TrEMBL record:
Residues 406-554 form the Thiamine pyrophosphate enzyme TPP-binding domain. The keyword Cytoplasm does not apply. Pathway: Amino-acid biosynthesis; L-isoleucine biosynthesis; L-isoleucine from 2-oxobutanoate: step 1/4; Amino-acid biosynthesis; L-valine biosynthesis; L-valine from pyruvate: step 1/4. GO terms for cellular component: acetolactate synthase complex. The gene is ilvB. Its cofactor is thiamine diphosphate; Mg(2+). Pfam families: TPP_enzyme_C (PF02775), TPP_enzyme_M (PF00205), TPP_enzyme_N (PF02776). This is Acetolactate synthase. Its EC number is 2.2.1.6.
Amino acid sequence: MDAQHATLRSKEEIKENLKKPEVITGSEILLRSLVLEDVECVFGYPGGAVLYIYDAMHGFSDFHHLLTRHEQGAIHAADGYARASGKVGVCIATSGPGATNLVTGIATAFMDSVPLVVITGNVATTLIGTDAFQEADITGITMPITKHSYLVRKAADLPRIIHEAFHIANTGRKGPVLIDIPKDVSAELALFEPSTEINIRGYSPTVTPNKLQIDKMIKAIAEAERPIVLAGGGVVYSGGHEELHEFIIKSGIPVTTTLLGLGAFPSGEDLWLGMPGMHGTYTSNTAIQDADLLINIGARFDDRVTGKLSGFAPKAKIVHIDIDPAEIGKNVPTDIPIVGDVKTVLQLVNKEVQYTEKADAWRAKLAASKAEKPYSYTDSDEELKPQWVIEMLYEESKGEAIVTTDVGQHQMWAAQYYKFKQPRSWVTSGGLGTMGFGFPSAIGAQMANPDRLVISINGDGGMQMCAQELAICAINKIPVKVVIINNQVLGMVRQWQELIYDNRYSHIDLSGSPDFVKLAEAYGVRGFRASNKEDARAVWQEAMNHDGPAVVEFVVRKHENVYPMVTQGSTIDQMLMGDAE
C-alpha cells in the first residue's frame, strides 16, 4: 500500500477511534469534534480561560496547533488558510483581551465572506456579567460581524454546536462563526457523542435558483449587443470557476474580475478585460459604462468597483447572481435578480446559453481597447519601480505562486501586474482593507498548501503590524517568501494627500522603520535587500533557492503612484491615467 493510502487509512482509523462514546471533559470534546470536522491545523494563543483546552492538547498527537505570537496573527493565519484551501479556518484565543484582539480579523473575514470558526474562552458561567478579570462580552461585541455566535452553557452541547458552526460558516454566504466557551464548561464532564445531523431552524440558504429568472437571463443575453460579466469572489468561494469559464467561452461575453475575483477566470485569456473600479483597467471601466447588459456573478457592487453609484453602468440592464438575497438591489437596482449558489446557477445557465453573435463588434472594440491601453508605468534604470518588482516576481514564479498581500499601493500593484491563472492563488483583504493581514495570512496559506510557493507582498507599514510572526516561520520552518515593497512612507495615504489634499502631507513618514534584514535575522530568518534591478533579480533567486522562510526588501521610489485611479465622487470612466495621460 502506498504512503497516501496508508495516510488516508490512518486518518479514518483515528476518526473512528475518536467517535467512541465516552465521558470526557468539555475540552476533550472540543478537540475531538474539531478533528472529526477534518481540521488540519488550529492557530491560537493560550491564556487563563482556555487553559483546560490547552491542557487537553498536551499529548493529543492527532491535534495540530500552531502557536502564533499575537491573536491577530492567529486569526489572519486562519483566514489565509481558509481562502487558500476552501476549508474552514479555525483559531483559538482566551477571554477578554485575547478575544478582543480577534475582532479585526473577524471583521476582515466577515466583509470578505471567509469561513472561520473562532473559539474563545470566557470566565466561568458563575462570573459572567460581574466584570470579572479578563471578562468581555465577545458574543455581543462581535454580533454585527459574525454569521452566528454561541455562548456554550453545557459541555454536552459542544458536539452539536461545533458541527453546526462548521455548517453555518461554510454554507450559503460564508463567514465567521464564534463559539465562546466559559472556563467551567471546558472542565465539565459529559458524555461525548459525535453530532452527525444538521437541523437549524430558520437557516436554509437558497442554492438552486428560480428557473423563470434563468430564462430571463438567457433572453437578455440573446438580445444584448454590448454585454459584460462582472465576476467576484463568490465565483471562487462557490468553486464555480470552471462553470464561469464554460459560460464565458460559450457566450463570448467579455469578463472583468473584481479584486477578490482575481483568478476566477484565467487572466491571460482574450475575453478577460482586467480588474474594474478605482484602480481597474481603462477597458474594464469604460466597458461597464457603455454596456447594455451587465451580469454580476458573485460580486456585491462594492463602492470601490462602482464609483459614483448614480453614474454606474447607466446604459445597462442589470443581472445579479448571488447566494445572499440581501446583496441584490442593495446598492445597484437590479432588473433580473437570481438568488442561488454561483456554481449551481452557472451549471443551469450553461445548458441553454448561446454565443452572442450580436456582440461581435463589441468584442472587437474591447480587444482593441485592451491592446491600446493596458496598465503602464514609466520604468527606470536608476530607481527600482514597484511595478517592475511585481512583474519580476510573476516572471520568476511563472505565475504559479499563491500571493498574499497587505493593504495599500503594493496591494494594487500586485493585483494589476501579477497574472492569476487559477482560483485561490490570491489572498488579500478586500472589504475591510486590513493592514497587518498580508504576512500572517501567508502562513495560513502555506500550511494549507505545503508544496506550493507562497509569496507574501507587504508594504513597510503593514509589515510592522504583525512582523512578530516571523518567529513561527523560523521555528516551524514555514517557507513563506516575504516581500517588502519599501517606499519609506504610507504610500496610499501619501498618494491621496498628493492628488486630493493638494500635497499636504500629514503623518505619513515611515523613515524610522527598522532595518528589515536585521529584523528578519533577529528572528532566525534569512534577510535580503535590493535597490536596483540587477540586485533585485539576484537576491530573489537566492531567496527562492533557500529552502526556508526568507524576507526580501525591495527599496523602491517613494513618490510612485498607482494608476489608473478613480477619485471618490467620480464615475469609473473618469480616470486619472498618470503617465499614460
